[in-house]
Amino acid sequence: MQKRVCYIHVGPHKTGTTSIQWFLQENRAGLLKHGYFVPESETKRGAHHALAEKLAGMEVGEHREPLVAKSIRALGETRAETIVISSEALEGILQSRKHAQVFFSRIAELNLEPKLVLFPRNQPQWINSSYSFSVKSFRRSDPFQSSAQAFPRSPGARFSRWMELADAYALELIARPFTKQIIDRGVVPQFLQTIGINSSSQFRGGQVRRNEAVGPFTVSVAREVLRSIGDNASRLTWLQAERCKKALVAYLGEKGWADAGYCGLTTALARHIEQELRLDNNHFAQRTWGRSWAEIFAADTAEELTPNDFEIYRPDWFTARRLRRAIREMKVIVHDILLDRTLAVEAPWNDVRQRSGLVVKK
C-alpha cells in the first residue's frame, strides 16, 4: 500500500500558528473534499497538541484520551491521500530524542510519509512576540531584556536543528520564511500553497487573523500579578494559567484598557541577537533557500525599534495610576482562581511545560 503524505506543521510559536489551526478546523469538510484530512482538535482553536503528545508517547489525561484515540483511528482509516497535523508544541516535543523517535515510529506505523512544515522568523521579532504572549499567558514574569539576551544561547533559537532532525529521520523539511510581508498579507494562503493548495478563495476565513499581540499595559499587569504570587508562580498548573489569562483578557476588555503593540526591543539589542545567531541563520538559509538570512529577512533585520515596556520607560502618571489599579484588582481575581482546587490537579497533562512542548531533553 502506497504511503500517504502527512504534512506536520510544527510552528514555531508566534508565526501565525493559531490562524492556520483555526482555518484548518473551520474548513475540515471542504479540505476533505479536496483530499486533505484534518483530524479533530481537542481545542476551540484547532491545534493538535494532544494528538502530537500521544503520538510522541506522552500522557494526555483521561479527559483528552477518547478524542485522541478516535483521531488516531481516523488517521489509519481515512481514504484521503493527504493528512494535515498542526501543533507548535512539537517545537519542544521533538527536541527530546526519546519523544522524536516514538513520534516518527508511530507516524510510520500509520503508513504516513511525514513532511515537516516550518515557518522560521527573525529571532528578535520572534522573541519579542513570544515574550508578550508568555507573560499574558501567566507563564513567565522575568524582565524582557534578560530574557532576550539569554535567548540566543537556548537550543530553540537555532533553526538548523530542524535540518538535523530532518536528516536524522530522512524527512522532507519545507521551510517558508515568516517575514513582515507574510504578516501583512496573512500566513494562511502561504501555508495552503505549501501543502499544494494554490487558492484559498474557495475556503472560509483565509485572511482571518487570530491571537493578535498584546501591548505594554497588558504585559505589565500580568507580569506584576504573577510576581506577586511568589514561589508559587513557577508552579502554576496549565488550567490555572489558562484561567488567569482568560480572566485578564475579560477584565481589561470590560474596562476598555486592552492594548496592542508591545515592544521590549531596542535596535541595538535586536542587532546583538542577530549577530549572535548569524552563523547558524546563514547556514540554515543557504541550505534551505540558497540565499543569506539577511536577504530573506531584509525588512526585519533593517527595522528600527523603540521599546515601550514600562520597566524600560516609565508610563505617564495617568497610565501609571490606572496600572496600579489594574494590578490591585487582578491580584484579587487571581487569588480566587488559585483557591479553586479543581484547577490544581497534579498530572502531566496539567503541567505548563509539557503542554507547551517544553519537555526534558533525553
Task: Provide a descriptive summary of the structure in words.
The protein has two domains: 4-120 and 159-194, Rossmann fold; 124-152 and 214-353, no CATH class. Helices cover 51% and strands 7% of the residues. The chain has 19 helices and five strands. Helix 3 packs across helix 4. The mean pLDDT is 92.
Brief summary of the model shown:
The protein contains 19 helices and five strands.
Query: Count of helical segments?
Result: 19
Protein structure class: alpha/beta
Largest sheet: 5 strands, parallel
Instruction: Write down the domain tally.
Output: 2
Mean pLDDT: 92
Helical percentage: 40-55%
Range of strand content: 5-15%
Label the overall shape.
globular
SSE ordering: EHHEHHEHHEHHHEHHHHHHHHHH
